[in-house]
Specification:
- This protein has about 525 residues and is an alpha+beta fold.
- The protein is built from 14 helices and 16 strands.
- It has three domains: about 200 residues, Multidrug efflux transporter AcrB transmembrane fold (Up-down Bundle), CATH 1.20.1640.10; about 80 residues, Alpha-Beta Plaits (2-Layer Sandwich), CATH 3.30.70; about 160 residues, Gyrase A, domain 2 (2-Layer Sandwich).
- It is about 55% helix and about 20% strand.
- The mean pLDDT is about 85.
Length: about 525
């Protein structure tokens, strides 16, 4: 039995030294959660119905293009957002069979009725398709927000779905909360629209607004006075190109005034469309619109090949960087609204750290005093095992990159109690065996053997509960579950394996007739 010490002792030393190396220095290796270092807590709601509306609008454009390719004269294609329907109206009722043939490409659109003397078809979107779009909007929104936060440079963020349409965002240590909110909540839908130069904005606003046009505004800020002005544009509603085909967006500076701008590039599909659009509209103005705000509306001087464009707008460097960031991360599939916005100050977080550390120290001191008084020299073995348990726990947290939260500190405190509890079970078993008149060596063997099953049962059930908490809990609960899981594994190793090795090592050196327990 004692020959096993040749590999047990090196294994224990390697584990302890490895854990200490992983955890050192502690303040740099283990990130603190939101409740300990301060930061932002946001709950966002994705406007999933807007995603369904956008999908209906895109489908309507696709249907229009396919029907026109069949040389059918269309009257209109009108999405009904409230009813999740698309109305297709043709000029000649004889074209209805061809329209129905085109609509067969959209199996999720069910024909509901034919109206207006047989020239209008009404198609309803399948409820399952609408639900799929809603779910995708939340999933895509989650990934887009995660990409933006990653590029923003926040360490250990928590970004997860809550319920059917909500997203939880926790940003520990964030120093620019307003900027973070702007980056996270911006839809970032990039559109290119032609300026309607057939009439002035004043005429359109005076009551002559064409059905195919809209008025959008360009926000301009005077850098010297801080005064904000708005410049209005009459734009065609039809979007000739979107940001979905973007491949890159980066900040550059013009050579004349050193003003920052955002240079964007399109993929092959976008580049071909951009080449076609600029070729067909030389001498006309094309507006670059982000979230219904006009950034610029330059005149197309010539055909632009290669899919390269610029977004200008009297930016500061930070504004240009943020715009490039959201364009690279992609547009949100639907707008989001902030339901909850809480900021935890760093001083409050430091106060939580101080109280948490004190609770660990006080709890550990009380446990150590009790165990050493009650179990004497054997209690010292338990205390050493407890200390090693904390070292392994901190090393594991550093290795897995887990953020330490206030509930996580509670998990550490609970682990301290559980580690001692395992030793108590072993020691009480050893005492029972000694009362029965067994030798010290036999009592130790029997004590560890009989207590082992009870220790495993207790720890396995707690471990399963911790796994469930991790699977279904939110950020703070997950922090508690992680520390509890790691602590259980560490306590099993130290309370059973390490303690037994210490006893075996002592028994192998000399014969012990009386055990201090």
């Amino acid at each position: 039995m004692y020959r096993n010490l040749k590999w047990k002792i090196p294994l224990i030393l390697a584990t302890i030294l490895g854990a200490a190396w992983l955890a050192y220095p502690l303040d740099k290796k283990i990130a603190l959660g939101l409740d300990l270092q301060g930061g932002m807590h946001l709950v966002l709601e994705v406007q999933v119905d807007k995603a369904v509306e956008a999908s209906l609008e895109r489908i309507g454009d696709d249907i229009k293009r396919e029907i026109q390719e069949e040389d059918i004269e269309l009257d209109s294609i009108t999405p009904d957002f409230k009813a999740h329907q698309i109305r297709v109206t043709v000029v000649d009722a004889m074209d209805i069979p061809t329209v129905e043939k085109v609509m067969a490409n959209y199996p999720y659109l069910e024909k509901k009725e034919v109206t207006k003397d047989g020239v209008e078809l009404v198609f309803h979107m399948d409820d399952k398709e609408a639900q799929r779009i809603r779910e995708n909007a939340v999933d895509q929104g989650l990934e887009t927000i995660r990409n933006r936060v990653d590029q923003f440079g926040v360490s250990e963020p928590t970004i997860m779905v809550q319920g059917e349409r909500r997203i939880l965002v926790q940003l520990p240590g964030i120093k620019e909360p307003e900027r973070a909110i702007n980056l996270i909540g911006k839809t970032a839908r990039l559109e290119f629209k032609m300026v309607n130069e057939a009439m002035s904005v004043q005429q359109a606003l005076g009551g002559a607004m064409p059905e195919d046009s809209e008025v959008l505004y360009q926000r301009q800020e005077n850098k010297e006075t801080g005064e904000i002005s708005k410049n209005s544009f009459l734009l065609k509603k039809r979007t000739v190109l979107t940001g979905e085909t973007l491949t890159s967006a980066e900040v550059r500076y013009d050579s004349e005034f050193n003003e920052p701008y955002v240079a964007i590039s399109f993929n092959s599909v976008g580049a071909a469309l951009f080449h076609q659009i600029t070729g067909e509209n030389i001498g006309k103005r094309m507006a670059i619109v982000l979230d219904d705000n006009v950034y610029s509306a330059p005149v197309i001087q010539d055909v632009i090949p290669g899919g390269q464009a610029q977004i200008t707008g009297s930016f500061t460097t930070e504004e240009a960087k943020d715009l490039a960031l959201v364009l690279r991360a992609g547009a949100l599939p639907a707008p989001v609204v902030i339901l909850e916005n809480r900021t935890v100050g760093p001083s409050l977080g430091q106060d939580s750290i101080d109280k948490g550390v004190k609770s660990i120290i006080y709890g550990s001191v009380i446990v150590v005093l009790f165990i050493m008084v009650y179990y004497r020299l054997s209690g010292v073995v338990a205390v050493v095992a407890l200390f090693l348990n904390l070292v392994i726990l901190l090393g594991a947290l550093a290795y897995f990159g887990a953020a330490l939260t206030l509930p996580g500190i509670a998990g550490i405190i609970l682990t301290v109690g559980m580690a001692i509890d395992a030793n108590v079970l072993v020691f009480e078993r050893i005492r029972e065996e000694l009362r029965l008149g067994k030798t010290v060596r036999a009592a130790i063997d029997a004590g560890f053997a009989k207590a082992f099953r009870t220790i495993v049962d207790a720890n396995v059930t707690t471990f399963i509960a911790a796994i469930v908490l991790f699977q279904f809990g939110t950020g703070p609960i997950k922090g508690f579950a992680i520390t509890l899981c790691v602590g259980i594994v560490a306590s099993m190793f130290t309370a059973v394996f390490v303690s037994r090795t210490v006893f075996d090592s002592a028994m192998s050196r000399k014969k012990i007739n009386r055990l201090s327990i």
